[in-house]
Design goal:
Blueprint (H helix, E strand, L loop, with lengths): L15 E6 L22 H4 L2 H9 L5 E6 L9 H11 L1 E6 L18 E7 L2 H7 L4 H12 L4 E7 L7 H10 L5 E5 L2 E3 L2 E3 L5 H10 L5 H5 L9 E2 L5 E4 L4 E3 L7 E4 L12 E2 L8 H4 L5 H14 L7
Parallel strand pairs: 1-2, 1-10, 2-3, 3-4, 4-5, 5-6
Antiparallel strand pairs: 7-8, 9-13, 10-11, 11-12
The chain binds iron/sulfur cluster.
Length: 309
Amino acid sequence: MQDTSFDMAMVKDYEYKIFWTISDLCNFHCSYCYRDKTAEQYYATKKYTVGYIADCFNKTGKSWLILLAGGEPFLMPRFLPLVKELTKQHHIQISSNLCSDDVFEFPDYAPPEKVMVIGASLHVEQREKVDPGFENFIEKYHFLEQKGYRVLVNYVAWPPLLNRIEKDFAYLKSRGVNNVTAFTFLGNWNGKYYPDSYTEEEIAMITRLSVFNGEEDILRRRTKYKGIPCEAGYKYFSMDIRGNITQCNSIKTGYGNLFDDSFKPDLTNKKCIAEECIDTYMGEFLLHRKEHFGIRIRNYLRGVDKNKT
Ligand code: SF4
């Protein structure tokens, strides 16, 4: 059994990474979700066989960490056969609300050593309507952990939840759910933009509840890396539901389509041109550290980065 504790820096162990949004659809309707709820119901597995999809990754000649995001991945037709094919030559990460009972079949399709982490999204507002006490969610967390997966519960620090977040974390810990992290909310609520509108006390609390060292940078929007060489476009990409590939989630320069054989990656790193990196939990790990350090020092001297230790 692998060590089930999780550190985001683990992502650096995987050379080639792709963030694949496999659907826009979800059974939950969270107030803070940025997905288009009117999106067309499209899944790559309706158009292509799972073998064909896996072959498209295999033909690149790289071993990928495929970050499967949605929407809710377990709603995708043939999702389990797809992860079975993908994990023959690649590693995956999934983010799921764990509503589907197919979760109990997941170990039959993807071995723990091929899964970097299962992000278990606890969407409190919606979850409480169908799962009082989060009983079903907690059962699935323990099931997956006992099967040897790293499971990290993600809790979005949405402003209406800030008065209960610490209580919810304590409750989860009391139920043996030990890997839990707070995510910064990015968006508008009650006429105010977040993270800019978090108070200092809220920033301190969310930073304390997050397992990610860079959470305070996200809270304070210190994710501006313009000019720093980044692996996006070379070793990291973002892909949409139809296989269209862009440099990252922040820069929409096209790199072709994985499923029609037109994907063409760069041959080296290139400097970030985005005003702000919204590949929040990845950007930091794609940068060329040496030059990054130089820019951090320059920013510090210019007063841009004074709070960073
Ligand atoms: S730092 Fe972020 S925005 Fe810039 S290229 Fe890399 S992933 Fe894209």
